[in-house]
Design brief:
Layout: H1 3-7, H2 13-32, E1 36-37, H3 43-55, E2 59-64, E3 74-79, E4 92-98, H4 107-115, E5 124-129, E6 135-139, H5 144-150, E7 153-154, E8 157-164, E9 176-183, H6 188-196, H7 200-208, E10 212-214, E11 217-218, E12 231-234, E13 239-248, E14 254-261
Antiparallel strand pairs: 1-3, 2-3, 4-6, 4-8, 5-6, 7-8, 9-14, 10-11, 10-12, 12-13, 13-14
């Protein structure tokens, strides 16, 4: 396996880091004959992992985040002669319930509480927050006991935690809204402004502070162009998917169909 040749297919720093991590696991899986899983990867990183495995003859992968449609998932790599399924991908589940009604609790509150315990983001999968403020947290099994013992509060609310299992998951109803709009250009700030209802002048400091992501990677430039299928997120405001680019309007503006995910 020519590691540097494979890494040469990836230009971005995050892509190369992800590719290197997947390659390390493939090498180890080949040496031991045992399947090995990555940490949780976002969809962009999952695509990188898929490409890496496609370059490595004799290996396969299974991607699973604990439920069908999970955004963040682990990639299990293994020698092709082995047979592995989603059930073999190691994930754990915890439910956190606030001691009092806490509809104001959000994904951001729970993630902040977990990171405040010193955990790394890649050890945590999706966090499914219900209308009553309770959350179902998916994570790597090796930190499960630590989280059960130490996750005592989120925001201003005390929490009770317990282990649950995949069959116990209750998936929240997906909330989306279609937005038909026009923009002067496909610049990130122009499309984000239309999708989130935020002025471009207010988006500028959010981008500078690292609060805006494009395809799950921190956006560094307001002028970077977006394309159909791209996903833009702003901290605390959900995500906007560029569903369609429908050409120019009579006034020369670009007509878009956006999907706002709450």
């Amino acid at each position: 396996m020519e590691k540097e040749k494979i890494l040469g297919h990836f230009a971005g720093e995050l892509e190369r880091l992800t590719a290197a991590q997947v390659l390390d696991r493939i090498v180890a899986a080949g040496a031991t004959g045992k399947p090995l899983a990555t940490d949780f990867l976002d969809p962009c990183q999952q695509r990188t992992a898929d490409m890496v495995v496609s370059f490595c003859k004799g290996f396969k992968q299974v991607t699973w985040g604990g439920y069908a449609g999970a955004e963040r998932a682990r990639v299990l790599v293994f020698p092709a002669e082995k047979q592995q399924t989603a059930a073999d991908v190691p994930v754990a589940f915890i439910k956190a319930v606030p001691a009092a009604a806490a509809a104001a609790l959000s994904h951001r509150n729970y993630l902040g509480a977990l990171l405040g315990l010193g955990l790394r983001r890649e050890k945590i999968g999706d966090i499914l927050v219900a209308a009553d403020g309770s959350a179902q947290i998916i994570l790597v099994p090796e930190i499960k006991e630590f989280v059960l013992a130490n996750l005592q509060a989120a925001g201003k609310y005390r929490l009770r935690t317990a282990e649950i299992f995949a069959e116990d998951l209750v998936l929240p109803e997906a909330r989306t809204r279609e937005i038909k709009t026009t923009v002067a250009s496909l610049r990130l700030d122009a499309v984000a402004s239309a999708g989130f209802g935020i002025s471009r002048s207010k988006l500028a400091p959010a981008i500078k502070a690292g609060h805006v992501k494009l395809n799950w990677q921190t956006a560094k430039n307001a002028s970077v162009p977006v394309k159909a299928g791209d996903v833009i997120s702003v901290a605390g405001r959900g995500r906007v998917e560029v569903a369609e680019i429908q050409g120019e309007s009579r006034k020369g503006r670009l007509r878009l169909v956006l999907k706002k995910h709450y």
